[in-house]
UniProtKB/TrEMBL annotation:
Signal peptide coordinates: 1-19
Keywords attached to this entry: Signal
Entry annotated with the keyword Signal: yes
Organism: Georgenia alba
Superkingdom of the organism of origin: Bacteria
Gene3D superfamilies: Bordetella uptake gene, domain 1, Periplasmic binding protein-like II
Homology family: Belongs to the UPF0065 (bug) family.
InterPro entries noted in UniProt: BUG, Bug_dom1
Keyword Mitochondrion appears in the UniProt entry: no
Protein name, as recorded: Bug family tripartite tricarboxylate transporter substrate binding protein
């Protein structure tokens, strides 16, 4: 059903693209340059800079399956280490058949804190398609309330799992600590799945995670959701009653993980328009709505100048927070 919802939206874009190709000698189609629009000439790769099972991987696979089902173009999801998955596109200037799945961590936080060989401006930014609020979670029964967790964290004895360094979740943990005058002891893991297992096993006290990473464990009664950094309650039934940080005496604005797609550098206007059209139409489909609901995300679409301004502002905000 999810694929069918996206298929309806993508079919419009595909039909227009095919019509543009057949009429390229006599007209300039909407969204295309002189001589006709662009469509992929070979298999499409969806590059995910994350392990299988996380939010970026889920997004990449949702989109790839639906896109392939409609267009008949093979769309292969490839998983890479976080930085490698981004740098891969930097080495493919002008190639429209590869599209990257990005987020706040690998597009904004890491490049701002480390010299890793790229910034967001090195790529063709295509679209933000959703926001992902971060939550503080713990092993089931570890704390009686958010206030209990905060009180214990003020002693400086609580450990918090994090994926590598320079991640979006690390930034949120630092913001929570600052907001409530806490001291967390970071414990570094290789991936989000390792962090979840560490929480369940009691190897760490807390973790800052997005819903896709922990909702199955909440349903199984293995994890409690202690605190939300969102500005309003989530519509998801397992998250609707989670206390908000701004209800507990802080006016801190917490970083939000955005989910985005980006292209290689130096894409032509026709290539950029093609992907922006496809992604925009996806956000209007039933399949996208299901994706948002199932993964407890907040829908948000940004493209073009609005997206570039947003990313630039995120870098400036991070710098102001000591990034």
């Amino acid at each position: 059903m999810r694929r069918n919802g996206l298929a309806m939206a993508l079919a419009i874009s595909t039909a227009l693209a095919l019509a543009a190709c057949s009429e390229s000698q006599s007209s300039t189609p909407e969204g295309g340059g002189e001589g006709g629009g662009w469509t992929p000439e070979e298999d499409v790769e969806v590059a995910v800079g994350a392990q299988p099972g996380g939010g970026s991987d889920i997004l990449g696979r949702e989109f790839a399956a639906a896109y392939e089902g409609v267009t008949g173009v093979t769309a292969v999801v490839e998983n890479y280490d976080t930085v490698a998955g981004v740098l891969l596109l930097k080495e493919e200037p002008g190639r429209g058949e590869i599209i990257g799945v990005g987020n706040t961590a690998n597009m904004i936080v890491r490049p701002s804190e480390q010299d890793i060989g790229y910034t967001w401006e090195d790529f063709t930014q295509l679209a933000v398609i959703a926001e992902d609020v971060s939550y503080i979670v713990a092993r089931a029964g570890a704390y009686s309330s958010a206030e209990d967790m905060i009180e214990q964290a003020r002693s400086g004895n609580l450990t918090v799992g994090q994926v590598g360094s320079g991640s979006g979740d690390t930034l949120v943990a630092d913001q929570v600590a600052e907001a409530f005058d806490l001291t967390f002891q970071p414990v570094v893991y290789e991936g989000g799945g390792d962090v979840v297992r560490g929480v369940i096993a009691g190897d760490i006290d807390l973790a800052v995670l997005e819903p896709t990473e922990f909702l199955p464990q909440v349903e199984a009664g293995e994890i409690d959701v202690v605190l939300s950094t969102g500005s309003e309650p989530a519509p998801h039934p397992l998250l609707a009653d989670v206390p908000l940080a701004n209800e507990l005496g802080t006016d801190q604005e917490f970083a939000t993980q955005v989910r985005l797609f980006f292209g290689a550098p130096e894409l032509s206007q026709e290539q950029e328009d093609y992907w922006i059209d496809v992604l925009t139409e996806w956000t209007e489909s039933d399949g996208y709505a299901e994706y948002i609901e199932e993964n407890a995300l907040t829908p948000r679409l940004m493209t073009g100048d609005e997206l570039d301004t947003f990313l630039a502002d995120q870098v400036e905000t991070l710098a102001g927070n000591g990034g």
